[in-house]
Design brief:
By secondary structure, the chain is of the alpha/beta class. The chain has four domains: about 120 residues, Rossmann fold; about 170 residues, 3-Layer(aba) Sandwich (Rossmann fold); about 80 residues, Orthogonal Bundle (Helicase, Ruva Protein, domain 3), CATH 1.10.8; about 50 residues. About 40% of the residues lie in helices and about 15% in strands. The radius of gyration is 25 Å and the shape is globular. The two termini are about 30 Å apart.
């Protein structure tokens, strides 16, 4: 970037005149961010932004941050006071939207240096797209439904901390890609991301796979092996299908999380390992704990922050977008060109319940591309002909289907909090409980407690 022209958006009250002069001396062009003409005149090049939170939260400013973040490449730096930095709402804004923050009073030079680092990072991000995000749509991370917007908000929050994260969700929803996104947006992004599927490794080999072994530790151990935990040093360790972890490995993992040290099998040396642990499963872990299949103390350690993957059936308009992206990606697997989806296919895509979620959608579209004999993929090609009917058999069925979908979406967006979900639906908590019982929606996924499992904590 040409240092002779660096743009700095300013969003807040009256800026400090001496700070503006210092920024000008360092070749910064300071632009007020609230003007209606601002976005149209801004270049597409990366820029930095100063967000003044010294006088608290102003909804108009936060809305403007969200609008600008969708339109231009901007790395925000928050200005906070000794008092406002303690406020939960301020910490939440910083975790969600900002590259860094500065507590006032401080020197102008420090502010100049921090916005310089912010724009430098934004330049790097704009020039190098993370490879793990390039094919995001294949695992379902595309979409603008409320459920996906909530997921991305949660990812931004948990990425700003270093606490353990537990990702829950049905099979095929893209839990590993969510873990990769958390890693890519965290301070550990330049260090290893190591994934282990606990359900795919034989139980008798899992301990040595995770923690490694020394030469001679057992028959066939002809040389030292570094375990996956140690390989992830400095970065992120992702343990998928954590519910399949055998009891002996559960004890070793708990000991590691508590002490941040490991011992290779057959070794005597205690090795310090610095990793962030992210786990995931499709299982009901609360039931596993209650039934004694999983240690309660380990589960609580793993579930400091929780991310819930939305099932495809609650993502509405995303379904068509994902199907179109899958078609675009795999269309070259057959010689004859396919132009899109027939109306009956679109209807079937939205009427089907998608028990296999995004993975199933991708596989059905890919298979249909190969088997289709026409220019458009039909419901028959998708093997979903029985789901074409646009109208249900009765008004009662239509109401039941709509109620179920609305309740599932509300519970997901509000992280299972019944009180908040009921408020968003315009009904009482008692009424919502009754509807959930009538529709067979499990109450385990809901809670009457209005706590936030993704509080980013203090910013020290």
């Amino acid at each position: 970037m040409d240092s002779a022209h660096r743009t700095l958006l300013y969003l807040g009250g009256n800026p400090n005149e001496s700070l503006l002069r210092r920024l000008g001396d360092r070749a910064w062009l300071v632009v007020p961010a609230m003007g209606a003409h601002t976005v149209a005149k801004l270049a597409r090049a990366p820029m930095a932004g100063l967000l003044d939170l010294t006088d608290g939260i102003h909804e108009g400013r936060i809305a403007r941050v969200e609008q600008l973040s969708r339109s231009v490449l901007v790395a925000w730096v928050a200005l906070v006071s000794q008092e406002t930095r303690k406020w939960t709402a301020v910490r939440d804004v910083i975790a969600t939207h900002c590259f860094d923050f500065v507590t006032l009073p401080t020197s102008h030079e420090r502010i100049v240096n921090i916005v310089g680092r912010a724009i430098g990072m934004e330049v790097l991000r704009s020039e190098v797209e993370p490879p793990d995000l390039k094919d995001a749509f294949s695992s379902g991370m595309l979409g603008s439904s409320e459920a996906m917007l909530e997921l991305h908000r949660t990812i931004r929050k948990v990425s700003a901390t270093d606490a353990t994260v537990f990702i829950s969700g049905e099979s095929g929803t893209g839990k590993e890609l969510t873990a990769q996104m958390i890693h890519a947006q965290s301070e550990r992004r330049d260090m290893p991301f190591v994934a282990v599927n606990c359900g795919a490794v034989p139980h008798d080999l899992l301990h040595s796979e995770l923690f490694g072994y020394e030469r001679g530790a057992f028959t066939g151990a002809t040389q030292r092996k570094i375990g996956r935990v140690e390989q992830a040093h400095g970065g992120t360790l992702f343990l998928d299908e954590i519910g399949d972890l055998p009891h002996e490995s559960q004890a070793a993992l708990l000991r590691f999380i508590q002490e941040r040290k490991i011992e290779r099998l057959g070794g005597l040396e205690s090795i310090d390992v610095d990793v962030r642990v992210i786990t995931a499963t499709h299982q009901d872990m609360e039931a596993a704990v209650e039934e004694g299949r999983f240690r309660a103390d380990l589960f609580f350690r793993l579930c400091v922050l929780q991310v819930k993957e939305p099932p495809l059936r609650v993502r509405g308009k995303d379904i068509t977008e994902l199907a179109m992206h899958a078609l675009e990606r795999f269309k070259d697997e057959r010689a004859r060109r396919i132009h899109g989806f027939a109306p009956d296919a679109v209807a079937a895509l939205h009427n089907y319940g998608w028990p296999g979620n995004v993975r199933e959608l991708i596989n059905r579209v890919r298979r249909a591309i190969i088997l289709s004999e026409g220019k458009f993929i039909t419901a028959d090609d998708l093997e979903l002909a029985e789901h074409v009917a646009l109208a249900p058999n009765s008004l009662r069925e239509a109401r039941t289907s709509a109620d179920r979908r609305a309740i599932e979406v509300a519970l997901f967006v509000h992280k299972g909090r019944v009180v908040d979900a009921a408020r968003s639906l315009g009904i009482s908590r008692v009424h919502l409980h009754r509807l959930m019982q009538e529709l067979g929606i499990p109450t385990r996924a809901a809670s009457d407690e209005a706590h936030d499992s993704t509080d980013p904590g203090d910013f020290e």
